[in-house]
User: Fold this.
Amino acid sequence: MEAFYEWARVLYETTGINLPFIYDSYDRGRMIDGFFMTVKLSVICLFFSVIIGIIGAWLQNSPLKWTRRIVNGYIQLFRNTPPLVQLYFFYFAISTLLPKVTNEYGGQEPILGGFTWAVISLSFFAGAYNVEIFRSGIEAVPDSTIEAAEALGFTRLHIYKDITLPLAFRVVLPALNNNLVNLVKTTTLAYAIAVPEMLYEANQIWSDNVNVTEMMIFMLLTYFVLVGILVWGMNKWERALKIPGFGA
Amino acid sequence: MFGVLSKKVATAVALGALALTALPAQADVIDDIKARGVLKVAVKADYKPYGFRDTSGAIIGIEPELAKDVADKLGVKIEYVPVVSSNRMQFLQQGKVDLMIATMTDKPDRRKVVSIVDPNYYSSGTNIMASKKFGFKKWEDLRGKPVCGIQGAFYNKKTGRDFGAKIVAFKGTAEVYAALKAGNCVAFVYDDSSHVATLEQADWADYEMPLPTIDDAPWGLAVKLGETKFHAMMEAMIVDWHKTGRILALETKWGVANTPFAMDMNKKYK
Assistant:
């Protein structure tokens, strides 16, 4: 490992290609922390956005008029506003209205920090799309299947959980895949509210070292690999869930 | 083929000759200023109290006053041209202004572009702005605490690595002030000269600039490259400013505590 760090330093000295996130221990630490922050933020947001999508799609078909209206209002609000504006709104507007807590050094700090707001904002943002994606899947399940289940005495929740959703899931996977890829890329916006994810750290490193080109190339490749892993996993899952004769 | 080439060569030679003859013909900028009757100076218009606008829109502050001294010495009127950090050197290069006094940090690469005059007329460094209730005394007090900064500022790394602060960096100062007020960070690490101006405002009465300033970097005023006569005149002006305590007096007038740099220079030239 030491040899690799040293190689980056030699590379800089001999060719001018400057990769301080390899040879400089402080920059390396920042970059690694940033990478894991991006992974953490992505995984948590992926999880919550899918949960929001599943619950939202169920509530959207609720027999209660107001439940449907609230869900639709939520979708319109989060789908029709830019995610960066949402982040700023939560962090600078909502956060100041909430009660504060005293921290260990005697200051008053907001009850929720930048990371939490990023999770909330991005999950709801991607969740709004997911609700619509799941709805498209649910509507693709034939009425006759639902009617058969009703005839057998299944409750509404039961039908959704055990019949509609598993079938719908297979239909929605390509669209869901798309949205989740978008979500991972959207996590970069969290740098605006000072969540130290990868782009935030890279920005600081290229400002300190004036190696914008190298950092840009590195960022592009890293996100390409990161999203590539997600897409690979989703495609594998899609194939594993495939029911011969259903859907396509 | 050969004809075209020779034509090009001829043009190049002609242009070169033109450039050569143009050089001695170029009048000295001091003569230009006197002939014109106006000295055009690039100053900041958004950096209180070094260069900002009063309620009527006129540009005032420490640097405009220094510029006025130069105009008085030349016996001409003054015209302030507001600039920002990203265009100030270009204004001077293109001859839109004769002189630039615009809070510019003196750096070797900048000396290649414009003619920075020695000695430096001013200096600023890095400090924090924090609520008085924390009672910070030394940089190490920031260890483990969230400290706001501007994304890309060079002192973020130092504050994070050497003093162990957790840097919370935003795009601009407006976001930082909001975050500082909201308690997302305990302090704001930035230029001490900016803090001085901010702390003047009633909003920030409970805040202070408590630490010793670090990374003190000198500011340079500049003339266009090659203007040796004007350069020499400015050199004498700056020495005079330091000698007579003009800078110290201006600091006091505009509500800035006397900076160690200005005091040292005063002592050195007295």
About this structure: Residues 45 and 119 of chain A are 6 Å apart (CA to CA). The interface with chain B takes residues 26, 92, 95-96, 100, 105-110, 113-114, 191-194, 200, 203-204, 207-208 of chain A (CB under 8 Å).
